């Protein structure tokens, strides 16, 4: 049985976010605002169906998907591009591939203890974020 990702998660660490946003082509002012944010994620999981809601004081973003089913996503939380997205299990990790204008784009989520790890990639830039489960 795959890991249960359901819960509320608060960001505690955000490494290399600036260079990731530069790789996406995000403008200077938006990068400065985004770098100050401490997002909260609410993940709802029902088997292989997921809804991930990301809340900040600047923008909120919701994405829903079913493991293994490709869908068109507009990345409104970041660079507002259309991508073809598919998320699959890799053991207990969620691995997302986003095909579109930017190469090598996607993310990986996994859980260790009460921490949720997220690595987001664009090109050769990787941002590493850690979230802690809310009480």
Automatic annotation (TrEMBL):
Domain Cytosolic fatty-acid binding proteins: 7-24
Keywords, alphabetical: Transport
GO molecular function terms noted in the UniProt entry: lipid binding
Pfam family of the protein (one): Lipocalin
Superkingdom of origin organism: Eukaryota
Cited SUPFAM superfamilies: Lipocalins (SSF50814)
Keyword Transferase included in the entry's annotation: no
Family classification: Belongs to the calycin superfamily. Fatty-acid binding protein (FABP) family.
UniProt-listed PANTHER family: FATTY ACID BINDING PROTEIN
Stated name of the protein: Cytosolic fatty-acid binding proteins domain-containing protein
Native source species: Oncorhynchus tshawytscha (Chinook salmon)
């Amino acid at each position: 049985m795959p890991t249960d990702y359901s819960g509320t998660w608060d960001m505690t660490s955000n490494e290399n976010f600036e260079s990731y946003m530069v790789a996406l082509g995000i403008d200077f002012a938006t990068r400065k605002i985004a770098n100050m944010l401490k997002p909260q994620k609410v993940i709802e999981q029902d088997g292989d169906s997921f809804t991930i809601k990301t809340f900040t004081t600047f923008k909120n973003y919701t994405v829903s998907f079913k493991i293994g089913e490709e869908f068109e996503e507009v990345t409104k939380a970041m660079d507002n591009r259309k991508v073809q997205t598919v998320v699959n299990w890799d053991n207990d990790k969620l691995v997302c591939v986003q095909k579109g204008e930017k190469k090598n784009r996607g993310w990986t989520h996994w859980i260790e203890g009460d921490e949720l790890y997220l690595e987001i990639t664009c090109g050769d830039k990787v941002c590493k974020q850690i979230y802690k489960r809310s009480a």
